[in-house]
Amino acid sequence: MHRLVIFGTWLLLAFSWLLFALFYLDNPHQHGGHRLPKYQICVSQCEAGCTERAEEELLVALFDWTCNEECAHWCEVSDSEIRSSLQEPQVKYSRGRWAFYRICYMEEFLSVLFSLLNGLPYLYYFAASMHSAHWLGSVLKVSAAFHSITWILSALFHARPTDFFEHLDYSGVILTCLVEFATVLLRVADCRDGRACNMALSGGALLFGAYSVGMPILNFPWRVQQLLSQGVLGVTAALWIWYGVRERHNPLTQHIAMPWAFLLVFCVLELVDLPPFDMPGPLYGLVDSHCLWHLVTIPINAWIVYGWTLEGDAERNGKKGSERQCLHWRNAEQRAIIWTGIFLIAFSVAVVPTWLQSGQLCSQHTRCRRELRPSWLGSMDLSDPQWRAFREKLPLLVAVAVSTTLLRRACPRLKPVVAFLYCLVLHGLGAAIFLGSFLLVFYLRRFRTAAMTAGWSLALCLLYVKDVRWAEISTPGLAGLHDWRLVAKYAALRLISIAAEAKPQHALWQSFDFFFHPALWLAGPIMSLDDFVTSSPPSFKLCVFYGLRIIGLLLLQEFLLTWVPFFAILQTQMLDPFRTRSFASLLYAAINGLWLKFAVMWRFFRLWALFDGIQAPENIPRCINTHRTLTGFWQGWHCSFNRWVVHYIYIPLGGRKNRFFSVWVVFLFSAYWHDVSAENWPALFLWGLLNVFHLSLEWAVQTLWKSGWCSGLRSRTWIRNGFECAAGMFTSAAISVTTFVGVLGGPTFLQSFAEVVTRSTNWFLDAAGVLLVLGCIIQVTMAMEDAVAADGKQS
């Protein structure tokens, strides 16, 4: 009972301090310094001469202080000195900070020094390879690493207080406190199983992900972020104190738990937050209560590391062998959790701000704003014609899918009739073109050479006519509800499949139903005749769960297009406001938006086929971010079309034995199949050339990597993982560039991209942020694949 009383007392104390902090931090009289008229006049007068102060900006280029920031700092110090001389209370300025004298171009020199000293014990514990025999020794190593990183981020923020470093500082504090929270939970529950460690890390990763991504989106002020960090710290310290009271008979435990009691007591320095200019003496204008907080935590952190060392030594001396570690890097699940946390930090810093900025910039741009349409979530980017047409006609498509499926299941003998009536209503007299082509190829099936010649000739003619000569033979009065040219490319592939696979035993109604199948008619998936005939109906449960997944993807696409109008920005060429990182983040959003668009559309028609009893192939079986090679990407993007190309073009030309030649024919045919019109063919031709170049480069690197020269490198796990991660980042970059070359006009897009890159001043660091996001995704993917492989071996 006494333990619960002590624990409740500390929790009550922690939350009382949080309420006091909330009241104190929301005091408007203390945070209005940047809104004072005198301060604003001072800043405006100083900024008026910024163009004449280029030399001063060069002197502070190490920390990238701009002229406007110099003016703000000079006015803050001047106003604070006047207030001190008049004995008026000090106020905080922008971002809730006191005014400080700079030393060595650092905003808070002593806080920077004390932060580095705080992280020094943890850095020594981590770098000195102190392997603890305790079952939590590996967790302590990870905790020491996070503590070191957090204190380094704190030093950077106090040296250069920008929004970027502020977000990193608070993220580091939250992450470290969550790691300590998971550690004390494992100690309290005495969970020595690796699964328990995984669950604790997963919970911390989810909470940290909600914080990292939610804070930039919700745009909470710094006061709320400080309140959250202090709250997590208070609850964690209370749990450590409770653990120390429970294990009070163990002297080693006191060295681990008692420092947290002092840490919680000295939190009052964070809450009081005394200004520096009220302190007389030689440290006048350099020390505030937050700086003192960093000073008093130096011995506390050294005490914590000392307790870890004593515990490890006692465990090592008391037993012959060490216990199995709760956390070890070879555990694939734990690697996935750790890399997920790193991904969330990189994503929230490098990608989320740009996505938030893109919506504001688009609303201010006339051409871009015209592409936005009102929706149930607000202004939504519906500039992509394919997605706009699918979204507007989705209720009609659902009604048609339900009615045709019920009719075909009720009367199986009428399946071919229903299929052709569906085609006739859609295309009017255009259906006669498809009917005549089908009958000609089908009745020539006994003569394989003639059937193949007729099939390929008719297919190539359809692909040419639909883009070049279709207007001369169209009949607007009898055209039906949907242009026949929009589905001609899928009909052309089915013609070739019938010519190659139709056998005498295939009945007319089977081939007819395959060619005119309602679910596969508009957008695929593409199937061979043999797969269609031998397909077995799926279970109703599978269809329902598949439909729920499609609804989830549809909602995700709706939110993404409302949040980031990437299609409108790219199509209107509104690229000037974006630098390299912003442009790369925009491409990252657009390539994921394209994946979501095609995933929803293709999976909808596949769901239609599943309910009709046809096991159509999945066009996009995996996320676009998880591919580590271009070969794997093309095996997982529009799979049904790629299987068709491999079966009817790549293998007949020699396959892998002649792949450097076959790939040229494959991508030239792909460009011809997509669009052969004069305005789009150059961009698609360039798209095909870039794909061939990237694939050839990848195959050459893979050949070198698999050769005997690299056998020593392949034997090292970290080098092999790094190579696969680099290959994945190259794949993602190549996919983004080549895709938008084909979508946005080829040379025009490359010229715009080159202009944006050359105008950037920090292109390397900006691009590195996006590449870090991609690298983290690849690492998570590899860890998940290793976990699945390990489970398969155990079973």
Overview of the structural elements:
The chain has three domains: 106-328, Up-down Bundle (Rhopdopsin 7-helix transmembrane proteins); 373-616, no CATH class; 621-759, no CATH class. With 795 residues, the chain is mainly alpha-helical. The protein has a two-stranded antiparallel ribbon with strand order 1-2. The protein is 72% helix and 1% strand. It is elongated. A hairpin with a 2-residue loop joins strand 1 and strand 2.
Q: In terms of topology, how is this protein built?
A:
Blueprint: H1 2-25, H2 37-47, H3 54-59, H4 67-85, H5 109-127, H6 137-159, H7 163-189, H8 194-218, H9 222-246, H10 251-265, H11 268-272, H12 289-318, H13 332-350, H14 352-364, H15 366-370, E1 372-375, E2 378-381, H16 385-392, H17 394-410, H18 415-427, H19 430-443, H20 448-473, H21 488-501, H22 508-515, H23 518-521, H24 529-533, H25 540-563, H26 566-571, H27 580-611, H28 630-636, H29 639-650, H30 659-674, H31 681-705, H32 711-714, H33 717-743, H34 747-759, H35 763-794
Antiparallel strand pairs: 1-2
Helix pairs in contact: 1-9, 2-4, 5-6, 5-12, 6-7, 7-8, 7-9, 8-13, 9-10, 10-12, 13-35, 14-27, 17-18, 18-22, 19-20, 19-21, 20-21, 25-27, 27-35, 29-30, 30-31, 31-33, 33-35
Q: Quick check: average pLDDT? A: 75
End-to-end gap: 45 Å
Radius of gyration: 32 Å
Structural class: mainly alpha
Strand ordering within the main sheet: 1-2
Outline the biggest β-sheet: 2 strands, antiparallel
Low-confidence stretches: 22-30, 52-62
Number of helices: 35
Strand content: under 5%
Question: What spatial form do the alpha-carbon principal axes imply?
Answer: elongated
Approximately how much helix is present in the residues?
Answer: over 70%
